[in-house]
Design goal:
Largest sheet: 6 strands, mixed
Oligomer: single chain
Radius of gyration: 30 Å
Number of helices: 4
Structural class: mainly beta
Shape: elongated
Helix content: 10-25%
Length: 221
């Protein structure tokens, strides 16, 4: 189309959210174990701490020792989730940019900026993160079983949208520009409209013992 056939009908600055969370799990437990200790082919009995242990085997000679293992397992998990679907999406490229801390999410709605409210709440993020760190293990005695959530952050990234109207064809096209990376992509249809939603910290950050207890009953939160 010719330049004069194209009209910019709407421009928009939009803030789109994603969740970032990090947690560490620590498991300490004791378990009984049997060790096979190899010895010389001619050995018949081995005495350890005054206790005799018979040797068995034909070509490979060994005796058994009973022991108690103190096991320690630690693991760290981070997740980044799409706030609409709750699916994991890699937003690593945004974490390196400078950040501004906002005390109240509602403060972002200024100057006509469209702020999208997350459909997925923080309690969902924590439950998903904790479920990824929970594990089963064989133990005779559990000393420590703990999951520490060190961070849960709601990030907003800027998106600029421009809606073009091709008058002769009565066709609309939206081009969105990532405010951080500069990437551009075309979206069919009209520009996104403001959705009825509540931007309140208490509603978004709804983590509590009751929320976790519904998924992990009986745990000490």
């Amino acid at each position: 189309p010719k330049l004069e056939d194209i009209e910019i009908t709407t421009t928009q600055k939009r803030l789109e959210p994603f969740w970032y969370a990090c947690a560490t799990a620590r498991y300490v437990y004791d378990r009984k174990a049997t060790y096979r200790v190899p010895v010389a082919i001619e050995a018949q009995v081995v005495t350890v701490n005054g206790i005799e242990h018979p040797v068995s085997g034909d070509k490979t000679r060994a005796f058994s020792l009973e022991g108690l293992e103190r096991c320690v397992e630690e693991m760290t998990q981070t997740i980044m989730l799409d706030t609409a679907s709750g699916k994991e999406i890699k937003y690593d490229k945004y974490l390196s940019f400078s950040k501004n801390v906002v005390a109240d999410v509602a403060l972002l709605e200024q100057g006509g900026v469209l702020v999208l409210a997350p459909e997925v709440r923080s309690s969902f993020v924590v439950r998903k993160l904790a479920s990824m760190l929970m594990k089963t293990f064989q133990a005779d005695k559990i000393i420590e079983e703990k999951i520490d959530v060190s961070e849960i952050t709601l990030f907003y990234r800027p998106v600029f949208a421009v809606e073009y109207f091709w008058k002769a064809k009565d066709k609309r096209q939206v081009v969105e520009f990532d405010g951080l990376t500069g990437d551009a992509k075309a979206e069919s249809g009209e520009i996104k409209k403001k959705m009825v939603s509540v931007l309140e910290n208490d509603a978004l950050f709804d983590i509590g013992a009751d929320a976790i207890g519904t998924v992990f009953p009986g745990v000490n939160v």
